[in-house]
Amino acid sequence: MAAAYFLEKYAAEAGIGISIHLMEAQGRLGGVILTERVDDFLLEGGPDSFLSLKPAALELCRELGLSDHIVPSNDHLRKTYVLWGGRLRELPDGLMFVVPSKVWPIFGSDLFSFAGKLRLAASPFLPQPRSDGQDISVADFLRQRLGNQVVERLAEPLLAAVYGADVDSLSARTVLPQLIALEEKHGSLWRGIQAARRAARGNGKAQPKSSLFLTLRNGVGEIITSLEKKLVKTQVRMGTEITGANAKPEGSGFSIESRGGPTDAAAVIVATPAHAAARILRGLDSQLAEHLGAIRYHSSVTVSLGFAEGAFQPELQGFGFVVPRSEKKNLIACTWVSTKFPFRSRPEHVLLRCFLGGARDPAILAEEDSRIVEITLRELGEVMGSRPEPTFSRIYRWEKCMPQYRVGHLRGLEEISSRLAHHPGLFLAGNGYRGLGIPDCIQSASTAAAAALRYLQSL
Questions:
Q1: Number of CB atoms found within 10 A of residue 398's CB
Q2: Residue 208 pLDDT > 90, yes or no?
Q3: Residue-wise over 286-306: b if at least 16 C-beta within 10 A, else e?
Q4: pTM (2 d.p.)
Q5: Domain that holds residue 258
Q6: CB 337 within 8 A of CB 331
Q7: Domain containing residue 368: CATH number
């Protein structure tokens, strides 16, 4: 939808007439963005917010006239906890890209052992490994520089909550490019982190704090409904599954095959998960399809639970918790939604959202609803010390929606770009390539739309 929106926008700015067909296999628009109201609860089946640090989503919301609907998270209660040794322990202050930037908060934290604290404190004085341009796993990168406990108790649970992935296979150059850039610029990771902290302080002047997480008053789904209203040159065809794409003779465009018949197009943007793009493009270019299919995806489950006020004591003060794999839970993370975004539930109720699946437990997707709720409530009770009965529960299953940026991912993207060069007029967008959040997807759509319009102008 963002790709269609930007195509219309850029074509209008260039004074070019354009006709767009948006083909969607599902019976609704929005992909993993799914907002619902249940009684007085505002539920998100997929993402519940977007990062303010990446401007694409915020800029698009402003263009769509949603500026007055943007709501920041409840940041005076922004605390996150890590389950360790069966207890919730507060995440230490001063994290930068999932690693500590300050030593003293670590020493004041009960998340690390004394040996782990000493290892981290010694990091600036130990010989620094050099990546020399090679890609290694996130786990190896951080373990070599900051010690095993930073990986096990910080990076692994935080990245599992975002990517649903295994840090032993995640690509450091793809997932932590900022840290690698700091290390390469300053000669060591620790010196780079300290330099970034000094730069952020702005020469000693206090910088105004802004919310890290932003959402919309009526849910993230407002972006979808607003985009749909903005599309005037686009014919939306839902329930239209694409079965293939073929090049027309003599470079005259493409024929897009669906069960509704073929559609001719001068240019095509495939804005699907990479595995779906591989299936669509296999007949056009088997090598391109092979590289796209090599981008693995995991599935996930989110469980929204409503409770009466006072169900959990003490009162929930924070945004939720993440769970390291060493705790051997099905739960990956839990967001205390009614603290993070209080408007999403009635004042006399509590709303939680739990995450399961990913690389740790792919089989959970096949479980019955009742079994998933039972597992979730049992583990919540173990973590939070009580097991109240929810007033409602809602389960959302997302099959193969979370891309895994494994070691070598950037090299794979180079191969994909090389194959795309053989097919002028074919472009890719989506979460499988250079970022999986809402801002990343919007940015990839904008980039693909701009490239497609430049191609059309060249014809």
A1: 20
A2: no
A3: eebbebbbbbbbbbbbbbbbb
A4: 0.93
A5: 2-72+215-295+406-458
A6: no
A7: 3.90.660.20
